[in-house]
Amino acid sequence: MATLRVLPALLSLSLLVLSAGCQGAGAESRTRLPVPEPPAVDGQRPVLWVSLAARLGAEPLRLEAASGALQLVDGRGERFSSARLQLRWLSQPLADPVEIRRSVMGPFSSFEGAEQAALAWSRAGVTAEVAHPRDWEVWAAPGAAPPEGYAVRQVQQRLTQQRVLQVQTPAGWRNLASPVQLQAPGGLRFKGGVFAGPFRLQSDAYGSWTLVEQVPLERYLQGVVPHEIGAGSPAAALAAQAVLARTWALRNQHRFLVDGYHLCSDTQCQVYSDPRQAGPAVRQAVSGTAGRVLAAEGKPIHAVYHASNGGVSADEDEAWPLPELRYLEPALDLRTAPPQGVSLPLDSDQEVALLLARRSGVVGASHPLFRWRRQLDQASLRQGLGASGAGLGSPLKPVVLERGPSGRVVRLAIQGPQGQVVLERDAIRRTYRQLPSTLFVLRPAGGGAWSVVGGGFGHGAGLSQAGAIDLARRGWTVDQILSRYYPGAQLVPIQSLAGANGGAL
Hints:
With 505 residues, the protein is of the alpha+beta class. The chain folds into three domains: 31-216, no CATH class; 225-307 and 462-500, no CATH class; 371-455, no CATH class. The chain has helices spanning 111-123, 217-229, 235-251, 280-288, 349-356, 378-385, 426-431, 465-473, 478-485, and strands at residues 29-30, 47-56, 61-65, 70-73, 79-82, 84-108, 129-131, 136-140, 153-169, 172-176, 180-183, 188-190, 193-195, 199-203, 209-216, 292-296, 299-300, 305-306, 312-313, 331-332, 371-376, 397-403, 409-416, 419-424, 440-446, 449-455, 463-464, 490-493.
C-alpha cells in the first residue's frame, strides 16, 4: 500500500465562492463550508446519491464487507483494501481560520416550508439555499434582508479546527482526503443490511461527514417500497407505492444539495434500507412499473403520501405553505354517501366530529390509527412548546383558530393568561408528536386537560396507504388508485419528462 499523505478535509474541497455565498466578503469568509453538488440525475440511467449515515465525525466508524474485500480510494488517489475498515476522525488545526457568516431563516418544521421561504427570498433577488444542520433552515449571504412575513438572524462562526478522516493500517493511522470512494464487490454490511454501492465518504456543509451510496433508482425503490407501505400489501397497492416513491425521489433530488447528495434514508425523505431484502411481490411491483412516474405539465408531481387519511384527503396547503397543486385536492374518501351534515369544506368542529363518528363505508377504515384518542394535559402542553411557552403563564388552553377544507387544523393556538403561541400546519404535529394527524376535535377533560379525538395518521395529502390497500383488495388497479388520489396527474415514462432527453432531469 502506498503511503497516504495528509490533506485536510476542508481544504481538499473546491474553494470557489458559492452562488449562495460571500457577496462582499473576503476570500477567507464564506456562507458555509464548500461542498460540490452531486451530479444531476440522468433521465436515461437515473442514479441517486443517498445518505446511509450523516453527521459522522464524533465516533469511530467500522465498515465491513459482506464477502471479499472493501476497496478504498481517497481524494488523492491513495488506495487501501481490507475486509474490514476501521475509521476515525481527529480534530486538527486549520492553517488559516475560516469565517462563516450568513443570514438564516428558520427553523422550519419541514423541507417544504423551508423551500417556500427560500423561493420567497429568491423572488426578492437574494440567492438562498435550504440546509438541515439539525432542523430545516434557509441560508443566504450575511446582511440579507428577509422576505415579507419572515424573520432572519445573523450567524457568525470562526473555524479554527477541522475533522480529518483517518484509516487504521498495520503501520498506524493514516489521514484520508475527501471524498473517499469505496467499492464493495461483495456488498457492504451496514445497519443490519447489505448494500451494493458504490459508496462515498465525504465532508458536508457543517464540518461533519456523510456515508453516501450511489444507487440506481430502480434498486433504490426495492429498498423503499416495503418500508413505506409494507411488503404484504396487495399487488396494486405495492405498484402504486413504487410509482409514488420513484416520482417523489425525482421530484426531491435537490433536497440535500447543500451537503453534496440527493436524498437521506430516513423519514425526512423516504425510508430506505437493504434492497436485497425485497421479496418477490415488491420486486414485481418495481419491475412492473419500471420507469413510470406521475407527472403534470411535463414534470414529476409532488407525490406525497401518508399512512391513513381518516376518511378525507387534505389539500396541500393544509400541510405545507405550498402553491396550488390541482392534483392534490380535498375529497371525502368514502364508498357510500357521506353522513348527513358532512360536506366539503369541513369548517366546523361539528362537521369534523360527525365524520370522525363514521367508520362504515369509509375507505381504509381498518388502519389501527383510522380513529384515535389522545389527551393533552398541562405538562404535555407546556413541554411541547419548550422555551417558546415560558412566558404564557398558567393554565394553558389549546384553541383551534382555523381549519382547512378537509377539516384539518391549520392554525392552533396555545393560550395562556400572558399571551399565546400559534402553531401552523405541519408545526402542530412536530410540536405535539403524540398527535397522529391534525384531523381532530378538542374537548375539555377536566383538571386542565384536553381530550383530542382524531382520525388518520400523517399529513393527509395525496395517497392514503390504508386506502390504497383497501381499494386494491376490492379489485382496483394501480391506475385507478393513482387517479383517485392524484386527479389529473398522468402516468408517464421518465423519458417523457422535461429535460429527460437531454440527460439530466
